[in-house]
């Protein structure tokens, strides 16, 4: 006991060998840190109270958002009436090119999944042909009154532009090829986006009457879900664009163009539940270029809107008729083979840049369309390959 008492007194009698100035510095530092801790605590309390107040007024804010959305829709309905600037005698061709629709098979519309009632909005753009440089200039100005997406709070809007050229034209079908395609920069969370992007490509005067400019207004959200809001098609046949011509057009239901053909072979083995898809030939219009390009086909099996299988062919150098002669094997039970849909996508690959772009697509399965006859023939001729040409759309 005596030893512990003496040790306690010795601890209290210890003096720190610091000067008075050092003690004041330590005291000031401790007071400063104490004030910082008090400020952080006050800020956290204020933040908590703010979040609590916001959660209490969620219902009121949602009602205000609905009212503001209605007010914005009423404002969007009053879109200013832009005028079209053109020379005398161009009104007739302009009306024809804005109201023209390509007559394609009804099977192509199912690939777009766009309801006519949901299409709304207008697109303003301009066209110009520079005779000195033999260049077609397309400027995407703005879009107004686009449809809003309720499934996501963050949506980006952009315009995809394609310049199509008629390669083969007959009474049965019209085969087109893509001369050039571009994409504007995306605009986030704005149903009235202003773009102002300009694109140009080299085109001769002899090709002008065969060209069609197709502009698609698209969107995608933070989950990478893409959608097409509408389309505008302008045929340059008989249209005078030696001076910049500004146009305003309503968005229409998307239509696809025939860009080629593919020869497919189908065979189903019911005992082993094996589906053999043979990609034999792909026939597309090939425009010569300095850069060598390659093609490959990618097939996928979709059952009840769920992708269950997918495979791709090897890469082949692109020609007018590209020969593959490859067989892709899928293991599918009989319950799925009677309800599934096969989709084939053709991609063009630039070996130098290692970039790819979609240049054609088809989809068929169990249905009533013309393309689905091949599927029914396969189911009636089991264990035997059945070959047939299919149209590719873009």
Automatic annotation (TrEMBL):
UniProt record similarity statement: Belongs to the synaptotagmin family.
UniProt keyword annotations, A-Z: Membrane, Transmembrane, Transmembrane helix
GO annotation, biological process: calcium ion-regulated exocytosis of neurotransmitter; synaptic vesicle endocytosis
PROSITE patterns to which the protein is assigned, alphabetical: C2
Gene3D superfamilies the UniProt entry points to: C2 domain
Membrane-spanning parts: 24-43
Name of the protein described by the UniProt record: C2 domain-containing protein
UniProt xrefs under InterPro entries: C2_dom, C2_domain_sf
Organism of this sequence: Tachysurus vachellii
Residue span(s) of domain C2: 119-249
GO cellular component: axon; dense core granule; plasma membrane; synaptic vesicle membrane
MF annotations from Gene Ontology: calcium ion binding; calcium-dependent phospholipid binding; clathrin binding; phosphatidylserine binding; SNARE binding
